[in-house]
Amino acid sequence: MALKSTIYKAELSIADMDRNYYATHLLTLARHPSETDERLMIRVLAFAIHADEALVNAKGLSDTEEPDLWQMDLTGAIQLWIEIGQPDERRLLKASGRSEKVMVYSYSAASHVWWKQLASKIDRAKNVSVVNIDAETSAALEKMAQRSMQLQCTIQDGQIWLTDGETTVEIPREVWKA
Fold first, then answer.
1. Interval 63-94: pLDDT, tens
2. Are 21 and 14 contacting, i.e. CB atoms less than 8 angstroms apart?
């Protein structure tokens, strides 16, 4: 018998002063059995960074044809494809051909090794951006994971803070490919 996803609920309030975007999103997050709390929280962070009424959680780990998050226009064309972790070259090149923009958020201590092997292979994909979240930051985010969460994300002058009311984590990002 297959294991079922664990459901997490998050009330995510976003104050993105860089984009003049202020909204509260009620997210229902299905955590795949193979997904960690750390990865789940990086997914929430990616949602906060790119928040839009049209941005939705996709099947990600459950379906190789879908990203973790995506945003489509009214015609169904994919505007934004977001991958979490360390996707392989073929997946990124395929996403690059299907979407206007592809974002990858890597987050493990081994991300540098993954990126070193991948960088030259996806150089021709001009619409792919790769951002790394250091292991210390992702571990701090993991500690914030609860089945029911109230989170606030503030973005100002390129700086990002995520808080649950008790803990605040500043999110430094390292852009590997813009």
1. 677 899 999 999 999 999 999 999 999 999 99
2. yes
